[in-house]
Amino acid sequence: MSTDVLGEIFSRLETGGWGDLENLGEQIASANKAQSQKLRAEAEREAAIVKAALDNDAGRALLDLLVRKTLFRPSSGEEQAAATAEAYAILKARREGQNAIVFMLLQMLAVARGQEKQGGEL
Q1: Distances (CA, A) of 104 to 46, 80, 89
Q2: What is the pTM of this model?
Q3: How does pLDDT run across 17-69, given as a tens digit for each residue?
Q4: How would DSSP label each residue in 48-77?
Q5: Nearest-angstrom CA–CA distance, 46 and 54
Q6: What is the pLDDT of residues 86-121, one digit of tens each?
Q7: Which of 75, 62, 69, 78 is nearest to 98 (CA)?
């Protein structure tokens, strides 16, 4: 929400109270729409960066390597030998973090290609 709208809200509260906030709906909706458009433009800009880096032969080879080393990787001996639930959880959290980076790159590439989300994160 823009600072203009927040300033208007505070000003109306100081001078008139809650009743004066009734007509702010359009301003808040407009500020939210502007913020959403700004976030979408930033996401599209970031997706274009990923597309430029990965939507070529070398980039596809890198993505293939990342997918094989993260998403398709079997459980490690370290994960299987974890002696406590806490140790196992830490190892799984690390793996989930690695997987999340690959999912993020794949999602950004899909956005840059104009592909719609279907179902989950991809």
Answers
A1: 11, 27, 22
A2: 0.68
A3: 666 667 667 777 888 898 999 999 999 999 999 999 999 999 999 999 999 99
A4: HHHHHHHSSHHHHHHHHHHHHHTTTPPPPH
A5: 12
A6: 999 999 999 999 999 999 999 999 999 988 665 554
A7: 69
Contact residues for 88 (Cβ-Cβ < 8 A; gap 6+): 79, 82
With contact defined as beta carbons under 8 Å apart, do 112 and 47 qualify? yes
Would you mind telling me the total number of residues written for the chain in this entry? 122
Scan for tokens 């929400």, then name that residue: 1
Q: What CA–CA distance (Å, rounded) separates 41 from 35?
A: 10
Give the range with max mean pLDDT: 26-30, 74-78, 81-85: 81-85
Q: Are 6 and 14 in contact (CB under 8 A)?
A: no
Complete DSSP assignment for 10-57: HHHHHHT-GGGGGGGHHHHHHHHHHHHHHHHHHHHHHHHHHHHHHSSH
